[in-house]
Amino acid sequence: MSRPLLTAALIAGVLAICSHAQDKKPQTIKGWGTIVDPDGDCRLTEENGKLTIKVPGTYHDLTHSEGRDQLNSPRVLQEAKGDFVAQVTVNPFPLPAENTSTSLGICFVSSGLLIWLDGDNFIRMDRAAVAGLSTPAVLVEFYKDGKQVTTQFAALEDKPTHLRITRAGAKLMFNSSDDGLKWTTVHSEEATLAPTVNVGVLAINTTTREFAPQLEGFSLITK
Questions:
Q1: Model confidence over 133-157: pLDDT tens digits?
Q2: Where in 33-155 does DSSP place strands (E)?
Q3: DSSP assignments along 159-199, one per residue
Q4: Is the full-model pTM beyond 0.85?
């Protein structure tokens, strides 16, 4: 190969590599954060301040629980330094149907807030529903060193659910509301977290049917 042709081939190769790298840049949603879609099969769209997370009818979870160890749920995250208040509203969604499980017979769907340190250490606050139960619930789960260490839940009316997590030093407060005005404490706990964590939203689907929760009003205020 002549030198000009070799040079042209090298340039073309470099351009192809650069183009591929650009294609792999993480996608972001303004006001929400960076999309994390481990399996690359979910669709996250935002319109007029409302985020819809479409999760196909295959096993998508974020858990280290007995018999289940899965970290492929879609989420949207941004950095939070120090104390913060994170809040979001999860709109009503259909309750899961029975006999549609992709995970040990559990027909479960949820969407809500997430504090993410790494794959072994994270905290969820979900508006959740399980097949066979007539109402949804707010669910708080802590995972530490790859193990589930805390689970708290409270039944909800089937209305839009306002979720809020407050970090003040080592204390975490978890509150829910059905009108955004009157708040109920679901759980509080002392937790030693890194000074900087990732905070955002997620969706979980352990059924064979598509799950597409809609969230709005996300805010993350650092102090």
A1: 999 999 999 999 999 999 999 999 9
A2: 33-36, 43-47, 50-54, 62-65, 68-71, 75-81, 84-90, 108-118, 121-130, 137-144, 147-155
A3: S-EEEEEEEETTEEEEEEESSSSS-EEEEEEE----SEEEE
A4: yes
Q: Give the model confidence (pLDDT) of 50-68 as tens digits.
A: 999 999 999 999 999 988 9
Distance CA 105, CA 96 (A): 12
Helix (H) or strand (E) holding 201: strand 196-205
Here the tokens at position 109 are 């769907």
Tell whether the torsion through CA atoms of 14, 17, 20 and 26 is positive or negative. negative
- Going along the chain from its start, the domains and CATH numbers come out as 27-222 (2.60.120.200)
Q: Which of 178, 164, 183, 32 is nearest to 88 (CA)?
A: 164
The total of other beta-carbon atoms located within 10 Å of residue 11's CB is 10
